[in-house]
Amino acid sequence: MTAVSCDGGPWPGIALPLDPLTDLPVAVAYLSGPDLVIGFAKNACRRLAGDREVIGVPVRKAFPELAVQGRFDVLDRVIRTGQPARGSEIEVRVNRGGRAERLFVDFACQPVRDSAGGISGVLVHAADVTAHMHERRRHELLAAQACEAQERYRTLFETLPQGIICYRGDGSVFAANPAATRILGLEARAMTTWPLGTGGQPVREDGTPYRPEELPAQTALRTGEVVPDVIVGKPHARTGELRWLRVTAVPDERDSSGRPQRAYAIFTDLTEQYQMEAELRESTSLLGRLRDANVLGVVLVGEERVYEANDAFLDIVGYARGDVDAGRISYKSLTPPEWAGRDRDALAQLHRNGAFQPYDKEYVHRDGHRVPVLVGAAVVNRKAA
User: pLDDT for 365-383, tens place per residue?
Assistant: First the structure.
């Protein structure tokens, strides 16, 4: 075993073993004398100095860049007070091989006393924790990004107009967004299983009931496949109104055997669309019956053109079916200028009430003469309007 003696210096009598310290993964150095001369330095300490020779050199000359940064004040305090000092993740800038590097170190400074009880030197342990710091900060950044992403997903989950219901592998519900509770008419605490027990049995478009295992979420959990665009009719829990839903179920979080442990049902409420389509079909059927009856003139108009008219109306204004199909008839062109104000009043009443009181006016026949008529109107599809 090799030892270093500081005999003959102002703080004599210290002998320290070197060989066991040589290959430790931390920098170890013994500093002695009023100038804190480096009596020995482990290999890691020399590497911090860029392999410069530091033995026998005062520490402030061996590491001038640290002296400028005031990092040796702690050594003066240890000698002055006789108390050890520690630091964690202290930022330092060192010159290694002519290149400045920014490091983070943990250190401990331990005063060494001679036989008389005086301070004979300082034993310094320093560990380069730069890689650890960078890794920890990377994890902290990833954690912060995960929290931020989770917050964004939570906001999206709570504000999406589509309903979302989250299922465990056993079919129980562990979460539902506000849109889902609103569409189904259920409180969140009532949504524990699917099919949801309150509000009636889910049905297909033809009115036949779904069995529980046939529903999209259960199918996704059973097969492990995405189940897209399934139409499900579900009675509203409070009103009993049948709500029509387009449901897509997505499996997630598989176990070691590949079986899904979760599934998400995402659904859009199609009820208003279905109602509008039914009203349009009914209106179209009524218009067709009126048109075919040819008892009264019936016309379907928009802001720019006449879209449909029965033969009786075409006879009144003198136009042919081909003029309608080609879009050549404008309702405004059928009305003399002096009737424009009365038409505007009627149109305003139509928008307010869906219909207006019949009134007398005139149309301009295709050959230019005027035809007295009694006009009434109603919105064909008020929701569409």
Answer: 999 999 999 888 877 654 4
